[in-house]
């Protein structure tokens, strides 16, 4: 379960590469709305990946998701805080999932951002259940992956109309 109280960002975020990555490449150090800034940090990664074939993009998402689960689990144990509010790697992964096979263009980037943030904050079933009941790196990443899947479904529907 995520603790939404204000948590100081560990100094190790600036010293250990694994912590820096888990804290959204530094975006988790923003003292307000770190999840939103973590999602913004995902946009350059998406832009670098958007021209890849769907198969390669999907393969990378699977690899990134698995690696992120492992990394977040490791960092959580090291800092002794489960799903620290500044750990934004999950938002990066979730946004990349949301943007799988999305049409190109600024409107789609913004719509994907808005939909992902909506589902990540709202946490409809089973996202909220996973957030509350699944621990470790799997739980940290999986709820955002599902928020990304919900966003992806709506993006695909919007692309059809």
Account of the protein in words:
This protein has 161 residues and is mainly α. It has one domain (35-74, 88-160). It is 66% helix and 0% strand. The chain has helices at residues 17-22, 34-49, 54-79, 89-98, 106-122, 127-133, 136-160.
Estimate the strand proportion.
Answer: under 5%
Rounded radius of gyration (Å): 15 Å
> What value does the average pLDDT take?
94
Assembly type of the shown chains? single chain
Q: What is the CA–CA distance across the termini?
A: 37 Å
List the helices and strands in order: HHHHHHH
Please tell me the total number of domains: 1
Q: What characterizes the major β-sheet? A: none
The helicity comes to 55-70%
| Uncertain segments | 1-5
The outline comes out as globular
Number of helices: 7
Structural class: mainly alpha
- How many beta-strand segments? 0
Gist of the model:
The chain is mainly alpha-helical and about 160 residues long. Helix content is about 65%, strand content about 0%.
Feature tags:
single chain; 161 residues; mainly alpha; 7 helices; 0% strand; globular; disordered N terminus
List the helices and strands and how they pair.
Elements: H1 17-22, H2 34-49, H3 54-79, H4 89-98, H5 106-122, H6 127-133, H7 136-160
Helix pairs in contact: 2-4, 2-5, 3-4, 3-7, 4-5, 4-7, 5-7, 6-7
